[in-house]
Amino acid sequence: MSAIRSALDEMFAGDDSELSVEELAADVVELSHVAQMVDVLRARKVKSLAERGGHHDLGYSSPTAFLVHQTRVSPGHAKRVISYGNAREKAPHAFAAWADGRLSTDQARHLFRVAEAVPDEYPDAEENLVDIVESLDAVDTGRAVEYWRQAMEGPGDIDAETQQIRRGISASWSLDGMVKVDGWLTSAAGQALIAGLDANMAPPRDGDTRTPRQRRHDALENLCRDWLDNGTTPTVGGEKPQLVLHTDLPALRGIAGGLHETENGDIVDVDTLRMIACDCSLTRIVIGPDSEVLDVGRKTRVWSLAQRRAIIARDRHCQGPGCRAKPRHCDIHHKDHWADGGTTRVDKGKLYCRPCHIQEHLKEGFQRRRRSRP
Predict the structure, then answer these.
(1) pLDDT band at residue 236, thresholds of 50, 70 and 90?
(2) The dihedral formed by the CA atoms of 110, 113, 119 and 122, expressed in degrees to the nearest 10
(3) Global pTM?
(4) Contacts of 323 (CB under 8 A, 6+ apart)
């Protein structure tokens, strides 16, 4: 390991500006190969550590917990490394091709996945599959492997028991503040989701530049918000499920760098925070210099129920250009944000659906940042 570190230290000390384009390109390719070799070694060693129960000896409940704590990767990343190690037994030829560089990590992952999905048929076909995909890129490898999988088990003719085993959804925060969603739904759950999305996806209005993917995203958000706001939801910790944000006054005024995050500690940008704060419930918490809570006020709505009803009666639908989204899918937007001293009056509020509300706050955020520049 010390030799590897020494070689890397030597490369770090070099000056890239002294290299030709050809030399830089060669270094990028070679480092990619080296990084893959490191991935293979790590997967192999994690597998060996897990088989020997080494994570328990070190005080960890699982190999995942060990990797998360010791290497500071996300749980999803840790589980992926562990799955690569397990693939050495389930897909030995693909693992060997990955180890000697004949397959890239992305190519190998497609084969590891199908080895899990079709465990009975895969072993007899593995050598041929490796030979077929070896000359392909990662995208075409995925296509070839998927065609083979469907030839083995059909495009979707999976029995109910298998569907129950495979079902699952993961949702995780990324470093850029978005949420990555991935998973498989059973046929029944998938039909319910598609029906719900279709019901919340009106035909695009004139000037609507959203892609179908973006419109489905907005429809899914409407479904979730409608259920949280109006559905018969179970209580969690004594209250209905809700999005909880922790913020300080500067963040509400559009100044980043203080406190603006979710209850779980995920950072939210100040423009999104201000948009949510337009139409929310607010609890004031006074914290002393030593982080002790001095006072907790009552939770109050920024807009009262009577004000909301009056604005709905007046506007009837979203007031975004050309948009007629229904009131139940709308927030109330402050013409002048209350955190900036604006008043919460009916004549200062407008109905905006979530996409239009986002656009309005993006425009306001741009104007605010432009005014603050010297």
Answers:
(1) very low
(2) 0
(3) 0.50
(4) 205, 208, 317, 353, 355, 356
